[in-house]
Design goal:
Layout lengths: L1 E2 L4 E2 L2 E6 L5 E6 L5 E7 L3 E6 L4 E6 L5 H7 L1 H7 L4 E6 L2 E6 L1
Antiparallel strand pairs: 1-2, 1-9, 3-4, 4-5, 5-6, 6-7, 8-9
């Protein structure tokens, strides 16, 4: 689930990561409707889709504001041992149930 002050969206997520810390997240709403595709390592990220407002790539610490919450998920998801992960930053809340 993704929530802001004006939007709540429940979708499907595919999360993959490697032992070296490479991270990939795909957030979609139904088959064939990808809202965000994100690839990230500790310093660099690439994002595509409507939630990325098109396409962006660059240093994580220089990401556009709409992507900063999404880029904060890498650390939380890779290091979580729980079947659910909640992350809140600013007015955004992310809730994952695996």
């Amino acid at each position: 689930m993704y929530r802001t002050a004006t939007t709540t969206l429940i979708g499907d997520v595919l999360v993959r990561f490697s032992k070296s810390g490479d991270f990939e997240l795909t957030f979609s709403k139904g088959p064939g409707v990808t809202l965000l595709s994100l690839r990230q390592d500790a310093t660099f990220a690439e994002a595509n889709g409507p939630f990325a407002k098109g396409r962006w790539s660059g240093a994580v610490d220089q990401a556009p504001k709409p992507l900063r919450g999404w880029l904060g998920l890498r650390h939380r998801l890779i290091h979580s041992q729980d079947q659910s992960v909640r992350y809140t930053t600013g007015n955004e809340t992310f809730l994952f149930r695996f």
